[in-house]
Design a protein that fits this description.
Layout lengths: L1 H17 L17 H21 L9 H15 L9 H22 L2 H29 L5 H12 L3 H19 L7 H9 L5 H27 L6 H30 L1 H21 L3 H16 L6 H18 L4 H6 L8 H30 L3 H10 L5 H6 L2 H8 L6 H37 L17
Helix pairs in contact: 2-3, 3-19, 4-7, 4-9, 4-11, 4-12, 4-13, 5-6, 5-9, 5-15, 6-9, 6-19, 7-8, 7-9, 7-19, 8-13, 9-12, 10-11, 10-12, 11-12, 15-16, 15-19, 16-19, 18-19
Length: 472
């Protein structure tokens, strides 16, 4: 079985390499059948090795975030042992990643206070994305010679931040700040409450709330660009329907389901009901290609549940602790599997190098835009704005979910022998490249700036510096 899988994989790589020339002769694309046993072995080994790496790497004195150890463990396993570690089917990863991402986005939803931060959330959630995507689209059009629809596909697919990267970084900062303010003691119940609800700068809460806006806008434009690229009619009704689905379904899960269960069966069943409902909704919406609506549903469901009904503050603290446990348990099913989906043999240097330069340029413009929005339009101080600009380039899970969308569309409309196939492969390489570049950069910047953030008296969104007495 291993020989069959390797042969099929090698044939696919040869096919993909040949396809990386716009004027290449027609080739037959190989679609190796799903080997269930091989995929299960790959899944188990990759997840176990990723979890082990997250625990063992810090023992060497190097202390990267667990997500980085897991991500690059998956990349190494896939590329060093391609006959053993095979690519996991997309239908599997959608469900596994949804379970993990639901826990991450749910924690962000618990902190979201739209009545207080709506305009700040909208500004940070949209302006940096639009700036970065505009730069990426222009460079993809002028340097990579992609048609405008494919350039937009490239730009907004890469432009979206990823909840799986940004949310853990933000919560790690919240919890370390809580420990510092509690006198350096371990994260006790009081410190946990501070980490969850008493974000005196407002910065972390606003960033957490902005994630859903960023992902929704990016994935919506990505879907529109995908349709235009392959001549599929675009309907404004479909965009409105996706937005309405996210708003209505999220509100129903949080209020109708969450509040009801919480009132009559207690917080344990209430939290479990909202988690399972939002996870299933995310799976179903992603299966339909509505990635933006999927994230919006989860964020809104948990925000609605947290801000109404009979839910008390101690319920929110308890829910956050349970969601953190779920995230810790399921994280090995996210980043190691994302890493194992990246086979470097499918990425020719002639495309990777310009993609690295273009994406790096996009990062610079996103960071600059985030800093200016945070400083000038929201009113945060210099250090808070620098921290926001660093963490706000985290990408991985959204790109891993969307990177094969154009290639799958090529097969569905039988464009294997047309130039659209080449353009789709370039989009794929760009999104995979962003997946490899963004997490370590975002993690390094967040860690570096976090120490300065903790030493500086925080500044509120109204530009007022808080006193030391306000921190307790």
């Amino acid at each position: 079985m291993a020989e069959q899988t390797q042969a099929a994989s090698s044939a696919a790589v040869r096919t993909n390499s040949a396809a990386f020339t716009p004027d290449a002769p027609p080739v037959d694309h190989v679609h190796p059948p799903i080997q269930v046993i091989g995929c299960l072995i790959s899944l188990a080994v990759t997840a176990a090795m990723g979890a082990a790496a997250a625990r063992l790497v810090p023992l060497t004195g190097i202390r990267p975030p667990p997500m980085l150890s897991m991500l690059f463990t998956g990349v190494l396993l896939r590329n060093l042992f391609p006959s053993i570690i095979v690519s996991i089917p997309h239908s599997w990863t959608t469900k596994l990643w949804s379970l993990a991402l639901t826990a991450a986005i749910a924690r962000a939803g618990l902190t979201l206070k739209l009545d207080r931060n709506l305009w700040q959330v909208l500004k940070i959630g949209s302006i940096p994305l639009l700036v970065e995507s505009t730069v990426l689209m222009w460079l993809a059009f002028s340097v990579l010679r992609l048609p405008l629809p494919f350039a937009a596909l490239f730009a907004f697919g890469i432009g979206s931040i990823s909840p799986g990267v940004v949310v853990p970084l933000l919560f790690a900062t919240k919890e370390r700040m809580a420990v510092k303010r509690s006198g350096g003691l371990p994260l006790t119940q009081n410190a946990a409450e501070l980490a969850l609800g008493n974000d005196l700068q407002g910065l972390l809460s606003i960033l957490l709330g902005s994630i859903g806006i960023d992902v929704f806008v990016a994935t919506t434009v990505f879907g529109i660009s995908l349709s235009i690229s392959f001549g599929v009619p675009v309907s404004v009704w479909n965009v409105a329907k996706e937005l309405a689905t996210g708003l209505l379904l999220g509100t129903f899960l949080g209020a109708g389901l969450g509040w009801t269960i919480h009132t009559y069966a207690g917080r344990y069943f209430g939290v479990a009901g909202v988690y399972l409902g939002s996870a299933i909704a995310m799976m179903a919406l992603k299966q339909q290609g509505s990635v933006g609506a999927a994230s919006l549903v989860v964020m809104l469901a948990w925000s609605t549940w947290a801000n109404g009904g009979t839910v008390q503050h101690e319920d929110l603290v308890w829910a956050d602790q349970q969601l953190k446990r779920v995230w810790t348990l399921l994280e090995p099913l996210l980043f190691p599997i994302i890493g194992s989906s990246i086979f470097l043999g499918e990425m020719p240097v002639s495309v990777v190098v310009p993609c690295v330069l273009i994406i790096s340029c996009g990062f610079v413009f996103r960071m600059l835009a985030t800093y200016l929005v945070s400083r000038e339009l929201v009113g945060f101080g210099h250090i808070e704005s620098m921290y926001a600009s660093g963490v706000w380039i985290g990408k991985a899970s959204v790109q891993a979910t969307l990177c094969t969308a154009a290639i799958e569309m090529v097969h569905s409309v039988h464009f294997e022998h047309r130039r659209e196939n080449y353009y789709s492969q370039v989009v794929f390489v760009g999104m995979v490249t962003a997946t490899l570049l963004a997490p370590p950069i975002a993690s390094a910047l967040a860690h570096r700036l976090e120490s300065e953030l903790m030493m500086t008296p925080p500044v509120t969104p109204h530009g007022q510096q808080l006193k030391e007495s306000d921190l307790h």
